[in-house]
Amino acid sequence: MELFITSLNSGSNGNCYYIGNRREAVLVDAGISCRETEKRMKRLGLSMDKVKAIFVSHEHSDHIKGIPVLAKKYQLPVYITERTLFRGGLMLPAPQVMPFTAYETINVGELCITAFPKFHDASEPHSFVISYNDIRVGVFTDIGRPCEHVIKNFRECHAVFLEANYDDEMLDKGNYPYYLKQRIRGGLGHLSNKQALELFTSCRSSALSHLLLSHLSKNNNCPDLVHSLFSQHAGNTSVVVASRYEETPVYIISPGRSAITLPVASSESRQLQFF
User: Is the Cα dihedral 202, 203, 207, 211 positive or negative?
Assistant: First the structure.
C-alpha cells in the first residue's frame, strides 16, 4: 500500500502537486499550463488518465491558471469553495464544480481528501490531507502562520509539502517595498524558513519519511540555504526542495518504509501509468 507524490512546480510562478496510488490520483492546485503539466508528468512516467480530480487551495493565479484548460480537456471535477470560485473568476461548467467544506472527507476512488482552514490572504483558503489506507500526505503551503489545524494535521502525516517561502534576512535586505514585506511576513502571508523549521522540529511524527519544502521565493530565499538548514535537523526524514522551474522525482510514501525515490523515467515510474 503506497502513495506516489511529486511537485510538478512550486513557487509564485505556478503550483501543482500530484498525489496518487497505483489506480487514481489527484492534483492539488493547477497553476501551470495544461501543456506543461502533461509534459512534466510524461517525463515522470505518470499518466493524466489516472488523475481523477483537482483540489483548489485558494484563488491566487499561481494556483488556478491552468485549471480551465486542464479540467475541460480531461473532464475533471474541480473541488473548490464557492467563494474561491467567485473570487478566482474561473469559468467552469456547473457539473464540474464540486463545492467542499472544511473537514468533510471526499472520496476519490480509494483516496480520501480532507480540507481544513488556514491563515492566508485569500477569500476562503484551505490546506489538504490526502490519505490512502494508513498513509497520510499533507499539502501545507501559502500559510501566514501555523494554526491549530496545521499543527494537528502535520503531526499525523507520513509526507508533507511544507512552505518555506523566505529567509528573514534576505527579505529585510531585499528591494521589496515595505508594504509587501509586511504582507509576506504578516499573519496572512507566507511561512518563513524559521517558522517552517520550528513546525518541522516540534511537530513531526517519527513516521514522517519525506519533507518537500515548497513555494520558495525567487528573490527572498535560496534552495541551497533551505536544504542545508533543514538537513541539519532531518534525522530519518528525507528533505527535498521543490523547484519553481521543474518537477521533482516521484517519491514513494509507505508507513514503516525508508525514504524511497523513483528516478525520473525509471522503469517502475513508467509502469505507474498502467495501474
Answer: negative
Task: Report the DSSP beta bridge partners of residue 105.
Answer: 114
CA torsion angle 258 228 157 51 (round to 10):
-80
The string over 196-225, giving b where at least 16 C-beta atoms fall within 10 Å of a residue's C-beta and e elsewhere, is: bbebbeebbeebbbbbbbbbbbeebbbeeb
CA atoms of 268 and 38, how far apart (whole Å): 19
What are 96-116's pLDDT values in tens digits? 999 999 999 999 999 999 999
Instruction: Report DSSP state, residue 274.
Output: G
Higher-pLDDT residue of 152 and 269 is 152
Cell of 172: 529585510
- The single-letter DSSP state of residue 66 is T
DSSP 249: P
Please write the tens of the pLDDT for every residue from 121-142. Answer: 999 999 999 999 999 999 999 9
- What are φ and ψ of residue 148, in 5° steps? -60, -30
Per-residue confidence (pLDDT) for residue 255, from 0 to 100: 82
Distance CA 133, CA 137 (A): 11
